[in-house]
Amino acid sequence: MKRAEQLLKVIGNPTRREILQILSEKPHYISEIAKRLDVTQPAILKHLAILESVGVVESFTEESPLGASRKYYKICDSVNIEVAIRPRDFKVMDRLNIDCPAYIHLEEEMKRLTDEINNAIGITEKAVKAEELKAKAEALLSCLEYDSESWNCGNCRRIASLKKAVAEVIIQVSKGEIASGLSRLSSLINQLRP
């Protein structure tokens, strides 16, 4: 099932939509949500687990002035679903917008370099552009604002790692290291499989 279909199925549930409405105000912990919806905490926890599994919400723990730390839930700030309904056309698409200033700054350049690599005729030209792409990806990977708990940072890092690895494969092949380049490419493809 495509991710957009999963998202639509998940938010098709009225209780989950109410939870999302509450979380759109600010992060909440489970008992707050349960109290507002008059639903048991175990039921709310199940709904939150489903929402978290498709990347709609994320959790974090925060110290409480009243004692034990609490687990809060918030909406991921990077989920968009677009539905286009027209005569002879119906599309459901999801876009994951990474709301990271470093990524946004380099995104267009990385797209341009990727297009230039794809359109380059010779391997030498591809390798030159791959070196540039690798440098942009390394800039993202060395971001000083990286937060391992952040959905944005995690996705930014995954994209940067993948772009860097692909650039390295192109550079390896350009140096005549075809077997090791293809082996690395095969490894990358296996990592992308669900």
Provide a descriptive summary of the structure in words.
The protein is of the alpha+beta class and 194 residues long. It has two domains: 3-80, Winged helix-like DNA-binding domain superfamily/Winged helix DNA-binding domain (Arc Repressor Mutant, subunit A, Orthogonal Bundle); 101-192. 61% of the residues lie in helices and 18% in strands. It has helices at 3-11, 14-25, 30-37, 41-53, 101-119, 123-141, 151-174, 178-192, and strands at residues 28-29, 57-64, 67-75, 79-86, 89-96. The strands form two sheets. The protein has a three-stranded antiparallel β-sheet. The protein has a two-stranded antiparallel ribbon with strand order 4-5. A hairpin with a 2-residue loop joins β2 and β3. α3 packs across α4, α6 packs antiparallel against α7 (151-174) and α7 packs antiparallel against α8. The radius of gyration is 21 Å and the shape is elongated. The termini are close together.
Secondary-structure map:
Layout: H1 3-11, H2 14-25, E1 28-29, H3 30-37, H4 41-53, E2 57-64, E3 67-75, E4 79-86, E5 89-96, H5 101-119, H6 123-141, H7 151-174, H8 178-192
Antiparallel strand pairs: 1-3, 2-3, 4-5
Low-confidence stretches: none
User: Which sheet architecture does the biggest sheet show?
Assistant: 3 strands, antiparallel
Succession of helices and strands: HHEHHEEEEHHHH
| Terminal-residue CA separation | 12 Å
Rg (C-alpha, Å):
21 Å
Question: Number of DSSP strands?
Answer: 5
Helix content range of the residues, please? 55-70%
**Overall structural domain count:** 2
Number of helices: 8
